[in-house]
Amino acid sequence: MTLPEAKDLSHLLSAEAASRKSSPLKSAFKYYGLPGMTFLGGGLPLSDYFPFDKISADIPTAPFKNGIGAQVTKEDKTVVEVFKKRELNDPAIKDIELSRSLQYGYTEGAVELISFLKEHTEMVHKPKYSDWNLISSVGNTQSWDATLRTFCTRGDNILVEEYSFSSALETVHAQGINTIPVCMDAEGIIPSSLAKQLDEWVGFNKPKLLYTICTGQNPTGSSLTAARRREIYEIACKHDLIVVEDEPYYFLQMEAYTTDLEKRNQRHVHSHEEFLKAMVPSYLSLDTEGRVIRLDSFSKVLAPGLRFGWIVGQEQLLERYIRLHEVSIQCPSGVTQSLTNGLLQRWGQSGYLDWLIGLRSEYTHKRDVAIDAVSKYFPTEVTEFVPPVAGMFFTTAFDASKHPKFEEFGKDPLKVENSIYERGLEEGCLMIPGSWFKVEGESNPPQPKVPTTTNPNLIFFRGTYAAVPLDALEHGLEKFGKAVKLEFGL
Amino acid sequence: MTLPEAKDLSHLLSAEAASRKSSPLKSAFKYYGLPGMTFLGGGLPLSDYFPFDKISADIPTAPFKNGIGAQVTKEDKTVVEVFKKRELNDPAIKDIELSRSLQYGYTEGAVELISFLKEHTEMVHKPKYSDWNLISSVGNTQSWDATLRTFCTRGDNILVEEYSFSSALETVHAQGINTIPVCMDAEGIIPSSLAKQLDEWVGFNKPKLLYTICTGQNPTGSSLTAARRREIYEIACKHDLIVVEDEPYYFLQMEAYTTDLEKRNQRHVHSHEEFLKAMVPSYLSLDTEGRVIRLDSFSKVLAPGLRFGWIVGQEQLLERYIRLHEVSIQCPSGVTQSLTNGLLQRWGQSGYLDWLIGLRSEYTHKRDVAIDAVSKYFPTEVTEFVPPVAGMFFTTAFDASKHPKFEEFGKDPLKVENSIYERGLEEGCLMIPGSWFKVEGESNPPQPKVPTTTNPNLIFFRGTYAAVPLDALEHGLEKFGKAVKLEFGL
């Protein structure tokens, strides 16, 4: 089957991105390495002067039979060794020798690592158009910054979930770009609400980009269903939107929550196929026009400090990112690339899936402990929650109007929220007030109000089960539950 | 002696930089790690799931008695080992354990590495005001991008050397910022010319920033004398300019070129003090007001692929960079930080100076070979050159009016330049035409012309002695010399 090509979306580029030129020096580089040609063109240091002769790493051996968090022992240890000189590396393994990874390099990322990730992407997302590509970044935060520079100009409006990651919003606001919130419910963006907003848009400066953390959303913990993704993608096509899916938590999808302990023990994926099938379809997998920009990262699945992410989208748009990266970050760390590629080449695609399955199992268990504790310690009379199916976050919501001081607080739900936050601190547990993630922003001229069915007195708190040992997690939630009871006089 | 504080220069910030806010989540982080507090605030993965248990590197042992390019052998090898768990690391060495470097981290850079670089900066530059600081970046290209975002807005004018690094210019132009060239001679920027330009500036939008590669300039190979630096710094103070010194080549300063072989063998620095004294004073070292932003990097002294640079300047301005980095690059790679810090801690300040002295010696030798070959193979009748005292580049200049086809080419020096470039390629040696680095740009309204004493028919080519083995370098220059002779009919 031949796949169609992406649509030409170059009209959506920012002035900055459209104006980027290739370096004139590039035209000289075609002579580099030609037989008989002495190339005195580039200011590259000789690799003889790189003070790293070999780097190595101890990593666990796939398929991680004792779990991914188990201590690495002599028996199940794999050693990644990467030498400076190409000829010293194992010819059977596609390593990135240090003389290359530590030199000025390919802005797109080293070919071995990028090939691995492309194969992985093909396996997981099966893109539906032919000219998609994948380039490296130094993590999703930077990918998002680069995305804004590529599509937006000061004064533009973009669409974001009505609660969103505050750091991602700050990236937007400092660039003088305005955020227009899109209504959400417990499952994420409400498609009909988004459609209405765009259909009834007043004035020029209509948003051309939707930013969404659709799986394990930060801060709400919600995950968008496949059906909603399809609806939203259709809306994006109709209104010529770029869809940016920021998906660091995609592989932290879990088994459904159940209180039935017997069922709980039976839940798990049995094979790579089952695992891949259990994944919610990404926007990338639905994209036929090349209007999805997918931001992916090792931060939540291997380690944040690697500072390695990747961007998937149509080639023609990614070329503009490469021009930007050439004159900003250049490329991710070569040490990161040699070691991470070394790890992936030794695990193989299959071992990497084993690792991701291991993560799924760990996060499922953590989520279970958190939700069990919320059920046990929080007062059911006032607490609402939806067990998350992906990500690091869960939320607990309360009807502020049931708070004894609601009248005294002038019926301001935010005052109730703050009172609970403070009481939580007194009892010794910190969860983040939902209002801290609330997206503010109105276009000029203002748009018609989109009706919402959400209870305006509903407040919520974001907690994480990712960062704390399980006993501390349970104890913390006991304390927060007590704070809530005290607040509501229960 | 108590040093004065930097001047408040916050009026020079860009709209983007001035508007950056701290994340509201920061206010919660003060509760992190408090006794009795369960912190469910942050989405950090547990370090148990980082698949790197230990990383290590083989590095040469200071003081590098066989030279810095020598093959590392068993006898003079040092092994850097950094474990995930803090308690497994050697307590006598200030390593950055992987559980920290691979976690979300300090945007400023890991404290051990930053402290080392601050101590080094104090030793080399001895800043003259008290509240200077140093933060990490992912290399000078990104530091320069961040600097532009911090001080400039679309439509601004900035001052740059009339020939400059094309990639740095592209960073400027894509942001919609205009470059105003400053006249240079063989020693770099001509201070009187700069003064005249600013004194006679017409209209608003006067430049507020000077970008300069003052040591081993790219592409001219020139190095600015201490006297000129002082003059230019005074001009910057008078006209309220930020001075950005982009100094990747600062430690590629060399011994003076001499054809006297006996003298040549006697030249070298004998001690750390002599070495430090031989360095040309940086703008940072002259700065009393905190208006210098210094961009430094490991790219030319250790390896480009580390993607680690640092920015030195007054604390109040660097705080704005940190806010930018928090929502873009976050921080340099933790693998890079753990290994590079591991190397530096094992070498110590003294060993690092030994390494830099080794580099000085290597580059002096390479430069000598290049200049010897130019003297030997290029026709003296038409060739002008100044042996560089720093950096990776040398230039050879020619009077285009002496070219036999000058009249036929319509007296266009660029046609002569291109003809020589093409002939070089035919003979098998590529050097980059100087005009490729020429800065274009005029302000609106246009400024009065600054008179220049430079011969308008002088064209030049940039070569490098950094990237090629010495025999190939000599052979290449023989070929290019032949091309020049053929072109000029000599």
Oligomer: homodimer
- The tally of structural domains of chain A comes to 2
End-to-end separation of chain A in angstroms reads: 63 Å
- Counting helices, strands and paired strands, the structural category of chain A is alpha/beta
- Greatest interface: A-B, 113 and 113 residues
CATH superfamily label of the largest domain in chain A: Type I PLP-dependent aspartate aminotransferase-like (Major domain)
Binned, the helix content of chain A reads: 25-40%
Average pLDDT of chain A? 95
- Overall form of chain A: globular
CATH class of the largest domain in chain A: Alpha Beta
Uncertain stretches of chain A: none
- What is the CATH topology descriptor of the largest domain in chain A? Aspartate Aminotransferase, domain 2
Q: How many alpha or pi helices of chain A?
A: 15
| Rg of chain A (C-alpha, Å) | 25 Å
**CATH architectural arrangement of the largest domain in chain A:** 3-Layer(aba) Sandwich
Q: In percent, how much strand structure appears in the residues of chain A?
A: 15-25%
Biggest sheet character of chain A = 7 strands, mixed
What is the spatial order of strands in the main beta sheet of chain A?
4-12-11-10-9-5-6
User: What's the number of extended β-strand segments of chain A?
Assistant: 17
Descriptive report:
The structure is a homodimer of 490-residue chains. By secondary structure, chain A is an alpha/beta fold. Chain A has two domains: 270 residues, Type I PLP-dependent aspartate aminotransferase-like (Major domain) (Aspartate Aminotransferase, domain 2), CATH 3.40.640.10; 129 residues, Aspartate Aminotransferase, domain 1. Chain A is 36% helix and 16% strand. Chain A starts with 14 loop residues before the first helix and ends with a helix. At the A-B interface, helix 1, strand 1, strand 2, helix 5 and helix 6 of A face helix 1, strand 1, strand 2, helix 5 and helix 6 of B. Strand 1 of chain A pairs parallel with strand 15 of chain B, so a sheet runs across the interface.
